[in-house]
Amino acid sequence: MQSVGGPQNRHGITEPSQRRYARYAVSGQASQLPDNLLLAAAADSRMWWCVVMRLDESRKQLEITVARMQLRSVEQRRLENKLSVLDSKNMVIIYNRVPKTASTSFMGVAYDICKQNGFHVLHINVTGNMHVLTLANQLKFVQNVSYWHSIKPALYHGHMAFVNFEKFGVNQHPIYINIIRKPLDRLVSYYYFLRFGDDFRPHLVRRKHGDKMTFDECVELGESDCDPNNMWLQIPFFCGHAPECWKPGNEWALAEAKRNLLNHYFLVGVTEELSDFVKILEITLPTFFHGASSHYESSNKSHLRRTAQKMDPSPSTVAQIQKSQVWRMENELYEYALDIFHSVKKKSFDSLEKGQIFTYEKIRPK
Q1: Which one-letter DSSP state was computed for residue 164?
Q2: Which regions form coiled coils (predicted)?
């Protein structure tokens, strides 16, 4: 129902009354307004004041929320930076180096740059140059590596088989690296090394010193020093401590070596491309290997240990060795590692040229 004066507002005041209120207010005669108009005006003022107060409170709450979000963002960045520093300070690299794969040359670089880059280098010396540890010593080794905090960051190196840290229930796992070599090249190098030594320690008398028999003659006579089974070393080094790993020709050992190489090794290089191995490590692990590549190229470390006298085997000797199952399996592991290394190398060097980056976006919930 409408009043005689026209439609009413929510205070029961007709439109003509509202216009009359406006005229009184403009003319400065608001004190002469009827009581109902004064009450309506007061109610409207309180309503707008409440609205303004609510808006002001919302603005303050928004400012506080934004400030808290900015503070959390700053704290998160600080935490991430702190964790990054902690991770680098706690990092451990294990290089379970295969003999006669240029490991001495590589470690010469590591020893030269360790002080300037702030990490420790430790050689693992096992009694009698044994390549496997007892179960008790495996546990002790894992505990030393995991909890010897004062020595971190650290690079451990030694001629020993792969140790799977997951087996021993520790939280932090080391980064494994290694270098692999063509199996026959490695065997020939070791054969002559035992007879003539090297230029690293030229005056040290080796076990077969004085034996002038060539590798070709050794193969022709069927001597034990050139037995193809002697090539069975790189597979067990990647396979680990299981007894099957050390049985020449064991198919499971080859499969396990491949699995470990793929799943547990950060990088496996090849002797023939050692400089590229060093470059990739510098790109990916600069905390340890900053400046390693230039040092390797400019110093005498690129050929730190050369066998004093060595003759390449004849084609007939090579053909005979390649008939053996052990050579085929060891070479299969080498080719497998080589393919992975070439893939990593291409992506790493391409990234340097193209400047690959990655970012995070569309993060939910906000």
Answers
A1: -
A2: none
Q: For the segment 46-83, what is each residue's pLDDT rounded down to a tens digit?
A: 667 776 777 777 888 888 887 777 777 666 666 555 44
8 Å CB contact between 179 and 274 = yes
Number of domains the chain contains: 2
Active-site annotation holder among 131, 157, 264, 295: 157
**Torsion of the alpha carbons at 258, 264, 269 and 271, rounded to the nearest 10:** -70
State the Cα–Cα distance between residues 160 and 103, nearest whole angstrom. 13
Q: How many CB atoms lie within 10 A of CB 306?
A: 13
Angle between the 183-196 and 325-354 helix axes, to the nearest 10 degrees? Answer: 110
Compute how many other C-beta atoms are within 10 angstroms of the C-beta atom of residue 339. 10
For residue 5, give its domain range.
1-90
Q: Are residues 115 and 220 in the same domain?
A: yes
pLDDT at site 207: 57
pTM of this prediction?
0.73
User: What is the distance between the alpha carbons of residues 224 and 245, in angstroms, rounded to a whole number?
Assistant: 21
Final residue before a domain boundary, out of 59, 90, 121: 90
- Of the listed 159, 241, 264, 295, which one is catalytic? 159
User: How far is it, in rounded angstroms, from Cα 299 to Cα 294?
Assistant: 8
Q: Are residues 189 and 327 in the same domain?
A: yes
Instruction: Looking at the structure, tell me whether residues 166 and 24 fall in a common domain.
Output: no
Same structural domain for residues 119 and 10?
Answer: no
Residue 366 lies in a domain: no
290 assigned to active site: no
Tokens of 312: 């390449």
Contact between 198 and 309 (Cβ < 8 Å): no
Percentage of the residues of the chain whose pLDDT score is greater than 70: 76
User: Is residue 360, in this structure, part of any structural domain at all?
Assistant: no
Instruction: Name the residue type at position 110.
Output: A
Q: What is the pLDDT of residues 202-239, one digit of tens each?
A: 555 445 656 789 999 999 999 999 999 999 999 999 99
| 159 catalytically annotated | yes
